[in-house]
Amino acid sequence: MERAKNLKPIASDNAVQTKNRICIIVIFLFHLVGLIGFIIPSLTVLFITLVPWHLLLMLGIIIYSYDNFDSRFLLFATTAFGIGFMAEYIGVHTGWLFGHYQYGRTLGIKLFEIPLMIGVNWFLLVYAAGITLQRSRLKSTLVRILSGAMVLTLLDVLIEPIAIHFDYWHWLDAGVPFKNYVCWFVLSALLLFIFEQFKFKRQNIVGPTLLIAQFLFFAVLNLVY
């Protein structure tokens, strides 16, 4: 009878591990396929149109992989989306944040000239960085926030040339202004601070996997282009 009682937790753990493995495989597989599509000229136009769908898929993967989905997770996701979207709105319409830039067609449907997917992207990146630092040995909340903000700013350094090349957005300034990176760091730090306030329980490695996949994806494209 004791053995029977233990079967359910073991089966449950195995199911969770299997789910996480599937999520990790999907993340790397779709980033690899996307990488090939962006590199092969005959496929590039098609794969550019798939960028918003790729982001939605990654959003679905993160939601699916989150342990014990609840209203707190939904509130954080909505908050990160809203703040990220509003920051981009201010940036595009005033130039006060990031610099003078406009969005192209690659990120899909826009509201007030801002792609809805940019809010999704801010959530995904901040969540992935937050979980990565959550799983680190860094005990200080401030150090985790600043480290995460630095990681996301370094990622933006890789993103910028590719985003410009594939019409995610374009700069009206001559080149990418240093102000952009300062604002990326500050906004990332703000969102990571909010992430810390939710005190999410330790999560699986799906979030960190997404962050690694993003770094690899844009690093390789920078080598190619």
Describe the structure concisely:
With 225 residues, the chain is mainly alpha-helical. Helices cover 76% and strands 4% of the residues.
Task: Describe, in plain words, how this protein is organized in 3D.
The chain is mostly helical. It is built from eight helices and four strands. A hairpin with a 2-residue loop joins β2 and β3. The relative contact order is 0.15. The N terminus is likely disordered.
List the helices and strands and how they pair.
Elements lengths: L1 H38 L1 H9 L1 H15 L5 H24 L6 E3 L6 E2 L2 E2 H19 L6 H25 L3 E3 L6 H21 L7 H19 L1
Antiparallel strand pairs: 1-4, 2-3
Pfam family, one: Caroten_synth
Keywords: Membrane, Transmembrane, Transmembrane helix
Protein name: Carotenoid biosynthesis protein
Give me some keywords for this one.
225 residues, mainly alpha, two-stranded antiparallel sheet, 8 helices, 4 strands, 4% strand, disordered N terminus, transmembrane helix, Carotenoid biosynthesis protein
Count structural domains: 1
Mean pLDDT: 93
End-to-end separation: 63 Å
Provide the helix percentage: over 70%
Proportion in β-strands: under 5%
Largest sheet, if any? 2 strands, antiparallel
Helix run count: 8
In quaternary terms, these chains amount to single chain
Provide the gyration radius in Å.
19 Å
Total beta strands: 4
Q: How do the strands of the widest beta sheet line up side by side?
A: 1-4
- Principal-axis shape equals globular
Keywords: Membrane, Transmembrane, Transmembrane helix
Organism: Mucilaginibacter rubeus
InterPro entries: CruF-like
Pfam families: Caroten_synth
